[in-house]
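Obj.: predict assembly geometry.
Materials: sequence records (below).
Method: joint structure prediction, all chains together.
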Amino acid sequence: MTQLTRRNLLGSAVAASAATALSPFGIAPAQAAAPPVGKQAPGFYRYKVGSIEVTAVTDGLRPTALADNFVRNASKEALHAAVAAGYEDPTKASFPFTPIVVNTGPKLVVIDTGLGPATFQQSKGALGQFQTNLAASGIDPKAVDIVIISHFHGDHINGLVGADNKPLFENAEVMVPAPEWSFWMDDGNLSRAPEAMKGAFNNARRVFGALGNKVTRYEGGKELTPGISSVATPGHTPGHTSYVISSGSATVMVQVDVTAGPALLFVRNPDWQAAFDVDGPKAVETRRKLYDQVVADKMLLQGFHFPFPSVGRLEKDGAGYRWVPAPWNPTI
Amino acid sequence: MTQLTRRNLLGSAVAASAATALSPFGIAPAQAAAPPVGKQAPGFYRYKVGSIEVTAVTDGLRPTALADNFVRNASKEALHAAVAAGYEDPTKASFPFTPIVVNTGPKLVVIDTGLGPATFQQSKGALGQFQTNLAASGIDPKAVDIVIISHFHGDHINGLVGADNKPLFENAEVMVPAPEWSFWMDDGNLSRAPEAMKGAFNNARRVFGALGNKVTRYEGGKELTPGISSVATPGHTPGHTSYVISSGSATVMVQVDVTAGPALLFVRNPDWQAAFDVDGPKAVETRRKLYDQVVADKMLLQGFHFPFPSVGRLEKDGAGYRWVPAPWNPTI
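Observations (raw structure tokens):
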């Protein structure tokens, strides 16, 4: 195997003695060069959980310059090293967004809604792709019965309303975590919030105001509709909620933002607190508890900010965890 | 966080006290239940290597019952344990197939062609999807200038010809490894081959016969067309070839069948020899050499039998390696 050398691997000095010299039947196509297609595949992926059909739908991926204090309890150097370990660049680390649609049979349910149409327009289609990919996947927003919201950050709620400020899921009941509503819609909390958080308070008022504040509030540990149950996973925000989808013996844990960030930083470093966690220590406690259970049960996990299609398993890896994506199934 | 218990995680006994009890604005949609869509996303994925556009196209995934001697130098028990460690079932371990298309600018190049139209028909579209996914990706087989074949196993060459026995890439030059041609087309080798291998010899005659044996033979370590160079990686078959695609400083190693099998078995256990390797010890030597280089260079790797879209990186992991898929980019 003398040809497998660094020099050849890098293709830097390959001989120009064209292979066609060996050919007794060389063909020279006369056609013009084909232009690159330049278009990515539609961003959805479908899988079954028992009889339930789940469709993971990408809302896009945002290259994100990470602030030096992106992790509260890690140095800039440690942060950059961890991002590099994920083969990413701290100046443009990838931050994916993945809402899901769950067809339980009786109900068509959306869990979280992405960055919304304004971001779609601003980003020229790179972000806020949920509606376009939903359409590509063959799902009509008018047919959605329930939209479940996990927490009130903009990348989860902004896709509830269109650029015209009208509901995008016009026939759907919108279900929100009761403690999340209490926290973000409280005027006292808004007035006491640090300046950097006031935008999120006001954004929640804007979005839910557009719905006439018509929401159903739910608690953790409840069946929201047959096949989908809520699990309180506070820390990231006070009412942040995860979900178990189950049908027969099949289950998937929808972890939403139990970790949220690029390069699987908080999977690798579960004790790190993100700057945007409302309660960092609680977020860490929640993450450890949920992940240890998911690992013990070898449970499928669906992560909002994991690389699309964002479904896989977790394994213990030293002091942290390792993400193992489920193999893509080209059929369903 | 008292709600995060095993009982709630599994959704086995969630209270039926519906969350709607909390709702002041419950909405009861009158529409009928939406049927499941039941259709997977088109199976292609596009990325850039410098100015070159690569399209990974799935040919399907075959659930495979692994023979007890699927690995020559491992016990049935060790094999089953390794498959289980990949969250797969040895009675239906997933065996994906992923040809790629490379648009170098001047040339539109296909590398390997999948299981072919006969398998597509027999499997009712579950396998042999290359042509349908190629169409979905916006690529016309008539526009393909070159088809590069890595080796002569059926899942790589059968897609060269249609059910009508006519070339599927009618305007393309077909390039094959010279040592592969010498091995499989030699009548002496056919007559001396064990019974289990004769099918592969005859299949190569069938496929290339349909092309009138009009092929261009190439050696390892050559530039096949600007941007694509061959790397001899023998063992799996005598003339098995890998490729380096490069443009500017960007490169990707196309490893084809340096490992071939489900659950990344030979990535985790690089010293294992597959029953279908023509020269098992040589395949192991090739794998170790190529992978150590790819790890050292943090080089992107495209694997024919890795889970779609089959592009990512390798890391050292104990005595073996670990596969780290590249994050899916929803744009290009």
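Conclusions so far: Residues 7-30 of chain A have pLDDT under 50 and may be disordered.
To do: check interface contacts against the pulldown list.
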